UniProtKB/TrEMBL annotation:
It comes from the Bacteria. It comes from Synechocystis salina LEGE 00031. Pfam families: Sugar_tr. This is MFS transporter. The keyword Electron transport does not apply. Keywords: Membrane, Transmembrane, Transmembrane helix, Transport. It is found in: Cell membrane.
Length: 475
């Protein structure tokens, strides 16, 4: 079967050798998974560290929101900027450089000496994490057999939730070992060495053969594919999407808004934006909400933060559970069904949590409603929209603009994350926690509706099939 003229790259990748995935394919997956782990741990560590930082620097409510939103705003910028660069300069280069930047700026965050430097360094950390949104998806999806693509991309992305839980547990451990206001510095500093190790791992990976083919670098594509699959490969120079009569029109960022790809752009960007409104608002401020609801009677800030963080760690376990359930279902039920079901479940969970604000603080029903609502929200969110928006964004565009499409969707989504991270504390005071939660529930239902209207199901299709037939690949 080797070296057969006319065989495409995807044919080689989709073949079933004695072992379905090579060691290099697993290495690529691991390198991508660790990037998502760092994102989760940084964002949620900030939620744990925020009360300490507020006390340490004497932050106003505006500056507190800025600290919470800094890394998310950086993700917004980094996803579009580096997604486009991944299409122009290559997947591997961006994949390595972004982790170098992460290691540098997380170290600087750990030694930040003022609110301004902390916000700036967290913003730069966010830029590097934002770059990982499109590139981590691309390096996995372009290296994995079609029948495994959904679950492999999703399982790598699930490390975001492991990182989220890890951020909470890390905060707990450091507060237990060193119960001081300044202990927040260690919460960031401990990530420097893992960041350097992942950088070194990414340097050992081959370039994406799909990207090399799109650049018509056939010899390099053959070498890269052979290294990926651990067997000889000779790819046929078959026409790519958008190619006619041997001439290919180069696509650019503006093609995302052309009639051919506009549906895909709406599907990937708008529901993700609506999902991030609640995901990051609830995720970052869960310890703060719990501290407000249950631990205000304690005069000790460290005790408040410890108790609230312990409660948040219980709730965040359901982030991981949601992903564990979604991974085997993504290639069975499909992306669209899970996203719609998940959005509806998120709305139910947020509504239940909102009801808790009408119950007296000492009543046991209050604890049941707030914890139960957040657990349902976390589970359904990672079963559906938090997982599926990421998977879809890297699948529905052709290779030439796949990075730009996935990057734009992630950036647009992070507008929602920044909005809630910055305004959540203010809105919580002005309109109340219950009204804020009800507003987020409405946003979740709107996400389900838009997903249904603009649906494009990618389950069971190769990346080439999806990229070439946007108008016909409708669910």
């Amino acid at each position: 079967m080797e070296n057969v003229p006319g065989k495409s790259l995807q044919n080689y990748i989709d073949e079933t050798p004695p072992r379905p995935l090579s060691a290099m394919q697993w290495r690529i997956w691991a390198a991508a998974a660790m990037g998502k782990f760092f994102e989760g741990i940084v964002v949620f560590t900030t939620g744990v560290a925020l009360p300490l930082i507020e006390k340490d620097f004497g932050l106003s409510s505006d500056l507190k929101g800025s600290v919470a939103a800094a890394s998310l705003f950086g993700i917004l910028i980094g996803a579009s900027l580096f997604g486009n660069l991944a299409d122009r300069l290559g997947r591997k280069l961006v994949f390595v450089v972004e982790m170098m930047l992460f290691s540098l700026f997380i170290a600087l965050t750990a030694v930040a000496w003022s609110p301004g430097t902390l916000i700036f360094f967290l913003f730069c950390v966010g830029i590097s994490l934002g770059a990982d949104y499109p590139t981590a998806h691309l390096v996995v999806s372009e290296a994995i057999p079609s029948r495994y693509r959904g679950r492999m991309v999703l399982s790598a992305f699930s490390f975001q939730s492991l990182g989220s839980l890890g951020g909470v547990l890390l905060g707990l451990a450091i507060l237990d070992i060193d119960p001081q206001i300044q202990s927040w510095h260690w919460m960031y500093g401990i990530l420097v060495i893992p960041g350097i190790l992942v950088t070194l791992l990414r340097m050992t990976l081959p370039e994406s053969s799909h990207w090399l083919m799109a650049r018509e670098r056939w010899g390099e594509a053959n070498c890269s594919a052979s290294l990926l699959l651990k067997r000889p490969v000779r790819i046929s120079a078959l026409p790519q999407s958008g190619q006619k009569d041997g001439k290919q029109r180069k696509k650019n960022f503006l093609d995302l808004f052309s009639p051919r790809y506009f549906r895909a752009t709406i599907l990937t960007a708008v529901p993700w934006f609506l999902q991030d409104l609640s995901t990051y608002g609830i995720g970052i401020f869960t310890p703060t909400i719990l501290a407000t609801l249950f631990t205000q009677s304690s005069p000790d800030l460290i005790t408040q933060d410890l108790n609230a963080t312990a409660g948040a760690s219980v709730i965040d376990i359901f982030l991981v559970v949601g992903f564990l359930v979604s991974i085997p279902l993504v290639d069975i039920m499909g992306r669209i069904s899970l996203q719609i079901i998940g959005f509806i479940g998120c709305a139910v969970g947020l509504s239940i949590a909102a009801l808790s604000t009408n119950v007296p603080p000492t009543h046991e029903l209050k604890t049941l409603l707030i914890f139960g609502g957040f657990m349902i929200f976390n589970f359904m969110n990672n079963l559906g929209p938090n997982a599926m928006t990421y998977v879809l964004a890297g699948e529905v565009f052709p290779t030439e603009i796949r990075g730009a499409g996935a990057g734009f969707a992630a950036s647009f989504a992070k507008v929602g994350a920044v909005i809630t991270a910055f305004f959540f504390p203010v809105l919580q005071q002005q309109i109340g926690t219950n009204n804020l939660l009800y507003c987020l529930a409405v946003a979740a239902m709107l996400g389900a509706l838009i997903t249904f209207i603009f649906r494009i199901e990618t389950n069971g299709k190769t990346l080439d099939d999806v990229g070439q037939g946007q108008r016909s690949n409708l669910a």
